[in-house]
Amino acid sequence: MIVGPTAVGKTSLGIRLALQLGCPIISADSRQFYREMKIGTAVPTNAELAQVRHYFIGNKSATESYNISQYENDVLELLPELFSTYSDLVMVGGSGLYVDAVCNGIDDMPDTDPVVREQLNELLKNEGITLLQQRLLELDPLYYKEVDLKNPVRLLRALEVCIQTGKPYSQFRMKVKKERDFNIVKIGLVLEKSELSNRIENRVDNMMKEGLLDEVRSLCPFRHFNALNTVGYKELFGFLDGVITLDQAIQCIKTNSRQYAKRQLTWFRKDTDIHWFTPDALINLIENQGNIGQYSLFR
């Protein structure tokens, strides 16, 4: 699998590797699932999708509820079918929790109660994220110390579990690793901070040229869905609401994207099984059919 921060080049490198291995790609990007969100989530282009079969790209609507547990189950159901045809598969994505769910499994979580979710969404909409933070501190102080308090999706999910079960969300996160019947080679892509920052800025500028504002405008009726509470969309909603100027919204997207990239790297660097490469070094490895640590990319 290929992981790393946003804009580092995972898509193109994943396609190179998949072509070399003659296999499809499984996406582990939690926003590329949604078919209405193409530009702002940097979905592979039609030309890229034509090169290699991709799974879990545009397979859901932003109006649908979809979570990590469902993704884990969907991938694990698909893998036996794919492994009956291919000896290798490539996973590409920057959503650490989703990658971890496939590699290690997640703890069994209760399904979401739509009524509780709607109540919490209304609370977020009317009272703001600070009240969610306060509620989580009261219900699960342990998870409060670990979670990204600026991420409303994480706060909402934790509160849903706390309210539905009467137990702290942290009790369901025992992190017991599940055995998998396939070998995993983990590749991480990394760049110098300045180069990654430049890539992020260029990507945002290109997204705007490709029509990101029109994409966001078309999604205004669905903005209350969790899928749309993400970088690139929430900032432009602010512009459409008249809260900030377009230039300010674009700068916010760039700033928030850099911060997101930093959080991604922090997450992935905790995994000591990841072999880190610059994009150029990985290209050289693929072209020369080399090894990564004790694992061979080509079997």
DSSP strand tally? 8
CATH superfamily of the largest domain: P-loop containing nucleotide triphosphate hydrolases
Number of helices: 13
Q: What is the end-to-end distance?
A: 15 Å
Can you give the helix content as a percent range?
Answer: 40-55%
Class of the largest domain, according to the CATH hierarchy? Alpha Beta
The run of helices and strands is EHEHEHEHHHHHEHHHHEHEE
Largest sheet geometry: 3 strands, parallel
Helix/strand structural class: mainly alpha
Average pLDDT reading: 91
Reported by name, the CATH topology of the largest domain is Rossmann fold
Feature tags:
299 residues; 2 domains; 13 helices; mainly alpha
Map the helices and strands.
Layout: E1 2-3, H1 10-21, E2 25-27, H2 46-51, E3 54-55, H3 68-83, E4 90-92, H4 96-104, H5 114-127, H6 129-139, H7 141-146, H8 152-165, E5 186-189, H9 193-210, H10 212-218, H11 234-240, H12 246-268, E6 274-277, H13 279-287, E7 291-292, E8 295-296
Parallel strand pairs: 1-5, 2-3, 2-4, 5-6
Antiparallel strand pairs: 7-8
